[in-house]
From TrEMBL, chains A, B:
<feature type="domain" description="S-Me-THD-like C-terminal">
    <location>
        <begin position="168"/>
        <end position="358"/>
    </location>
</feature>
<dbReference type="InterPro" id="IPR048350">
    <property type="entry name" value="S-Me-THD-like_C"/>
</dbReference>
<feature type="domain" description="S-Me-THD N-terminal">
    <location>
        <begin position="9"/>
        <end position="164"/>
    </location>
</feature>
<dbReference type="InterPro" id="IPR027479">
    <property type="entry name" value="S-Me-THD_N_sf"/>
</dbReference>
<dbReference type="InterPro" id="IPR010318">
    <property type="entry name" value="S-Me-THD_N"/>
</dbReference>
<dbReference type="InterPro" id="IPR024071">
    <property type="entry name" value="S-Me-THD_C_sf"/>
</dbReference>
<dbReference type="Pfam" id="PF20906">
    <property type="entry name" value="S-Me-THD_C"/>
</dbReference>
<dbReference type="Pfam" id="PF06032">
    <property type="entry name" value="S-Me-THD_N"/>
</dbReference>
<protein>
    <submittedName>
        <fullName>DUF917 domain-containing protein</fullName>
    </submittedName>
</protein>
Length: 368, 368
């Protein structure tokens, strides 16, 4: 069923998108301000269930591209996302029936809603990452055969670039990243244009709804147990299993912006000082180790939450002394196939570990 | 009158293009091999006088982009120039009637001939620099109102990028340079698409013929006085005045590849050791000073020629101990207007000098 997304949904959606951002994805609170303004000017956004999209419809996803460190300091001011969409439509010679997120974590859960509000296009409740990832080839769309090319990149000066690397999505990312750096570190993009049939086949379904559900569960659980409330809310989704990996205080953060990415590591100590958590990230959290043992691995979600409120904490805002609960969340089957893991599993990030589902590494009884 | 360019023209053309390259422009001898092969496979190239191009015809110039230092080591192997042309035609939704050089100096005198031989398109005998320049906004086309955008960039892996920065040709250069660096330092481009009427209004006319004439005069003058023969050949062209700026031996060369360009300086001492020449270059020679006094300034041509044969020497092949004659050559009026000088005069390269025509700085009687 399609539904109308209004200003009232945005607080929960932003919180949920930050959880699904697993530390990266750009700050959804910034995106929220943009969506709020667009909805105030143009009215609510129609969100389409993927099952409602015609097989023949053309869907063009829209997004922001850039290092979160830069995004945080450089708000999209103009019409760049629509400019990218229009450039790709013109290049293809076809108008889009809908837009869609490429990633449901972080600011990119919001950008298609801005486009939807401003253009009147519906937004499909699905995405191509099922979380946030740092690179454009890391999308289930591409994993299952939809090429990212041609893609359009729009800069804040009205510059438009259309990139076509055929079926080589990694090469597309490489060139688009170069263009984005020349545009000042942030750009807006339209890519992975596809049919409704391809949406149903390759997208992770209902991830806008998921973000909303996650954000709402955390809010409603405050005062009692927000983590338990979140775990309960996830049980009926494709992200079924939540495991508490660690509780403690942030002891160390090391972060640098390099080749257009935010890379680094963080460490936390348990409250009794007996145990140590280590996180590595490239924009997003990639691996969590406790006392040297792997507890959760990309593409499963590793989320750092503030200990009392379960408010998500991005790698940009990690600080010494923060009291945190770190949770692992299982991802849908479509994200754990061998093709998917080859594109965005541990090896794709240069990690030496074989992927294991978080629910297998951490049995339900053993958590905490 | 249109004429057929055959393999027999290539030796003179390459030499002349190297002279007009004023030290840069990429090695035309490499381009010559490509044209020779294309002519052997497909037959001669039709060269069109600009006066013969219909006012309504669409002309799309083609070229190579990249630092000469890289170009020298990385031959274009495939169909990149035609790929760029075809991508721009597709983007515009129109087929080109002809191609044209964007610069008549260096390898870019040759690339449109490769395209002409392979596709059967005629090549217009004109260009947008009247020499070689390091950046894409430095074209008379742009100076007189033809936008470079949209432009197409093709890489050797079949990657195609279309860039549109409206009327901002400097921004186009900036983004295209970033794409070219990501493509490995060299790419092929199609840009400044224009009508035949715009060719007649904005291009420097008959510069392929000019290169051929320059190369032939030097060859025919060997044994007697190739510099005098070159001066004589230029007298009837738009490049009327040749001045000998210096004769001596190269004493020092300093060269680096930086941000995609070859930058540096060179010095020569006169044979009697009494006088010193200094050259500064960014791909091309920008200023020649003798004993600290400016003798010739961009956009006028500063050409380093081997002392005995008048064979042109690029900045890439300048070596300690070479015996050279350095000449200055006046450029057409279209390249010396205030609009033109704002785009590619001394100030555009950060030089502190006001432009003065070489024939005014060095009176005919005083040369040698």
């Amino acid at each position: 069923m399609s539904w109308q997304l209004t200003e009232d949904h945005l607080e929960d959606l932003a919180r949920g998108a930050a959880v699904l951002g697993t530390g990266g994805g750009g700050d959804p609170y910034v995106g929220r301000l943009l969506v709020r303004q667009a909805i105030r000017e143009h009215g609510p956004v129609t969100v389409l269930d993927p099952d409602e999209v015609d097989d023949d419809a053309l869907v063009i996803p829209t997004a922001q591209m850039g290092a979160p460190t830069v995004v945080f300091e450089k708000l999209p001011s103009g019409r760049e996302p629509e400019t990218a969409l229009a450039a790709l439509e013109k290049h293809l010679g076809v108008r889009a029936s809908a837009t869609m997120p490429i990633e449901c974590g972080g600011i990119n859960s919001m950008i298609p809603l801005v486009v939807g509000a401003r253009t009147g296009l519906p937004v499909v409740d699905a995405d191509g990452m099922g979380r946030a990832f740092p690179e454009l080839q890391m999308e289930t769309f591409g994993v299952y055969g939809v090429p990212g090319s041609p893609m359009a990149v729009a800069g804040e000066g009205g510059e438009v670039t259309v990139i076509d690397t055929g079926t080589d999505n990694r090469r597309m990312e490489w060139i688009a990243r170069g263009v984005t750096i020349r545009l000042g570190g942030v750009a807006h993009i339209a890519e992975y244009s596809m049919s409704g049939a391809d949406v149903k086949r390759t997208a992770i379904p209902r991830t806008l709804s998921l973000a909303l559900r996650v954000g709402r569960a955390i809010r409603e659980g405050r005062g009692t147990d927000p983590i338990a409330c979140l775990a309960e809310a996830l049980r009926e989704t494709l992200y079924r299993d939540l495991r508490v990996l660690f509780r403690g205080k942030i002891a160390d953060v090391e972060r640098r912006t390099e080749a257009g990415f935010a890379r680094g590591r963080a460490a936390a100590l348990s409250f009794d000082g007996e145990h140590k958590l280590e996180l590595e990230f490239q924009n997003e959290n990639l691996v969590a180790r406790v006392d040297g043992e792997v507890r959760c691995l990309v593409p499963d979600l590793i989320c750092v939450l503030e200990a009392e409120t379960a408010e998500p904490i991005t790698t940009e805002t990690l600080r010494y002394g923060q009291r945190v609960t770190v949770v692992g969340i299982s991802t849908p089957r479509l994200m754990r196939t061998s093709e998917a893991l080859a594109t965005f599993g541990p090896a794709a990030f240069g990690l030496p570990h074989e992927f294991r589902p978080v629910e297998d590494i951490v049995p339900a009884a053993a958590q905490g």
